[in-house]
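note to self — DONT lose this again. spent like an hour looking for the file last time. sequence + predicted structure for the chain T wanted, 118 res
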Amino acid sequence: MTIGTASIPVLILVSTQHFSFWLGKFAPVCIAAALFVAASYAQIERPHDRWNVYRRYQRTFEAERLRYQGSAPPYDDPETRETGFASRIAELTIALHEDWARVLPSADEVAGIAHRRA
């Protein structure tokens, strides 16, 4: 996005000598439109936040699996280890869903962003 933004004035400057329509008008408009779409998408989707949520839970699930496989606490009691593991995984699954829902934009947020851009 930085390179695209910086290239617009350069193209306009170069257009004073060569290809005035293509470099001075057409290319800057296309670049600006593409940057607008990319910035809007990044603001609405927040892919980095979603990635962080999934990676955090992936590591948590892996840690629980290792504890279970190694019979480490709280999975060291043979009588309760199966139900304890299932219960913990269920809790983590619900927590993942709740964290995921917080990362997704609400309909009001999407409408507000679209309204501000218009």
